[in-house]
Amino acid sequence: SMILLIGSGLLIRSFTRLLTEHPGFDPDHVVTTQIDLPPTEYASHAQMVSFYSELLRQTETIPGVAASAISSALPPTATREGPILAEGEPVVPIAQRPLVNIQTISPEYAKVLRVPLVQGREFTPADNQTVPTYAIVNQAFVRRFWPNENPLGKRFRRAQAGSPWITVVGIISNARTESLAESDVPKIYLSLYQTGAKHLAIFLRGHLNTSEIPEEVRKQVQSVDPT
Prior knowledge:
Elements: H1 2-20, E1 30-36, H2 45-59, E2 65-71, E3 80-86, E4 99-105, H3 109-113, E5 117-120, E6 134-138, H4 139-145, E7 155-158, E8 165-172, E9 187-191, H5 192-195, E10 199-206, H6 213-224
Parallel strand pairs: 4-9, 6-8
Antiparallel strand pairs: 1-10, 2-10, 3-4, 3-7, 5-8, 6-9, 7-8
């Protein structure tokens, strides 16, 4: 039992160390909640986008909320993984292509979580389906694919048949939003208004009364969609 106790002591210490080391984002004064859009009512991209923009507008009317954002993943849960092919690399079978983390975010995501922008730009609501597909990538992604080149304007594509080339418009710092243990995972962020998501994590930053937030968010969601 002494060995078990020592083991658990080490586990607690290492977890505490991970929490106290800077995770690359700032969770203080951020409240999160999750929601799933029913697939039948939100079958079209336009319906989803209308919901996102109206929900973000409404959540910012909640007392104490300074800014809000939506993402397809809630830290520290894992985001989706997918193989990619960077432009100029040899075309190898999908199973041999490198895997990267993929997360869909609304324009304010990096600001709300205070993940620093290193180069280029963040998304705007104009990054929608009427323009070419854009991505923001983290520094680990740049190191993996274009270590000695300017990554802005570089392109890659995902594995799905007919997948469009995706152009890099911004670089943000590595953040341990998938795993507290790893910050150097290559990662791409796609625009919520371009690619959409049905499982949503909502982030609210501000000086908030956390006990009232669930009810406030429920109210705002129902004002956007009473069902």
